[in-house]
Amino acid sequence: MSLNFGREQLSIPGPSVMPDRVLAAMHRPSPNIYEGELIDLTASLFPDLKTVAQTKHFATIYISNGHGAWEAAISNTCSKGDTILVLVTGRFGQGWADMATQLGVKTKILDFGDSADADPAAVTKALEDDTDHTIKAVFTVQTDTASSVQNDIPALRGAIDAANHPALFFVDCIASLGCDRFEMDAWGVDVMVTGCQKGLMTPAGMSFVFFNDKADVAYQNADLKTPYWDWHPRANPEAYYQHFCGTAPTHHLYGLREALNILVLEEGIEAAWARHQTMSRAVWAAVETWGCLELNIKDPAKRSQAVTTVLSKNDECGKLRHWCEHQAGLTLGIGLGLAVQGEKSWNNVMRIGHMGHLNPVMLMGALGTIDAGLKAMKIPHGSGALDAASAEIAKHFTES
Ligand SMILES: *Cc1c(COP(=O)(O)O)cnc(C)c1O
To answer: What residues does ligand 1 touch, defined as CB less than 6 Å away?
Structure first.
């Protein structure tokens, strides 16, 4: 008989767990969308969003998921026939490239496989080979949510600079923002896209595009611009409705306000990055101790702090996901497009999401549930995983 008669937990890499305070903030009648509280609340979001992105430049809000932000970033900067260089380190860089292709942009792909980060030297080489500067921009993800690799964004900026190439630098932070350290301006990122349903802890349905003056120069000549995705009126509206090209996503804005209260005003972005570092180390320690699951990214310095992809050999991942969800109320992430032992196997990849609203109670609950699942299904595993995880949490307070 199932034990799942309590609060369920979603530990997938987005959507992430929504704080009760975010849900409560949304539980209200529709506000006036022409004057008053909502207008002020919306204005208050931008400084805090820019703090999360670590930028002083422009921020826009779209009523869309992350794919909408992808399209907005391309259409505001590119023209049909332009060429971009896309770094693929799992699933999501390819997804962004496919969208660019469908919009008529030519893509050059550097594919680094399913378990490695993008190699800066290869980026420099590709840009040096582009002697007539055809490549308009370099696109990458910070965290690839399929492989759980974290790309070294400052190193990739350095790689572009080393080639003395004028390409713009676009980064997808949909999985990583608010979890992995990210400093848009200091790291020389020209366009950054993200969504609200991962590190930003708000129900899916809003996305954000941040851009700087250099990207705005590209905007002037971009012939893929369309009225709805145009970032100018959204970033510099003369009338409130232009922020959203129509009716505001009223309740999402209330939810986001509360999420930013928690993340920016109460915890602070630096502390949130440090918390995610501790949470991710706890996950890795547990996985390594169990021994029956393998971390997809071997080098800890290249792992995401938002999601951990693990592999198995004998369908353990599929069995665990099923047991945890149905017997215990814990939903773990399915594998996404990774080839395992030469085959795509849903049952030998899984992803543990640890982004956003997460404290040791929730994390240890998830790890303890997986531990119980291993025992219940008699999957051979090392003991002491929870000890190893709690030791990492304790280190948060003993190591400065
Ligand atoms: C989730 C995710 C996306 C896609 O976002 P949607 O909201 O599902 O459109 C894109 N890139 C990365 C890195 C993601 O994690």
So the answer is: 14, 65-67, 92, 141, 145, 172, 174-175, 195
DSSP-based three-state secondary structure for 217: helix
The answer to pTM > 0.70 is yes
CA distance 184 to 181: 10
Return the number of other C-beta atoms located less than 10 Å from residue 119's C-beta.
Answer: 18
| Model confidence at 119: pLDDT above 70 | yes
Which atom of ligand 1 is nearest the CA belonging to 207?
Answer: 7
Tokens of 1: 């008989």
Residue with the two structure tokens 């030998």? 348
Q: Residue 63 is encoded by which pair of tokens?
A: 């009523």
Q: Which of 232, 237, 190 is nearest to 213 (CA)?
A: 190
Rounded distance between C-alpha atoms, residue 56 and residue 342, angstroms: 45
Give the chain's domains with CATH numbers.
Answer: 9-16+268-398 (3.90.1150.10), 21-265 (3.40.640.10)
Q: What gap in Å lies between CA 253 and CA 25, rounded to an integer?
A: 9
The answer to whether the beta carbons of residues 176 and 206 sit under 8 Å apart is no
Examine the pLDDT at 339 and tell me if it is beyond 70: no
Question: Which atom number of ligand 1 is nearest to the Cα of residue 92?
Answer: 11
Three state DSSP letters for 251-313: HHHHHHHHHHHHHHHHHCHHHHHHHHHHHHHHHHHHHHHHCCCEECCCCHHHECCCEEEEECC
| Residue 109 DSSP SS3 | strand
Mean pLDDT of 252-261: 98
Look at residue 336 in the predicted model and tell me its pLDDT: 87
Please give the span between the terminal C-alpha atoms of the chain, in angstroms, as a whole number: 45
Give percent helix, percent strand, percent coil of the chain, each to the nearest 5. 45, 15, 40
- Determine the distance separating the centroid of ligand 1 and the alpha carbon of 114, expressed in angstroms: 17
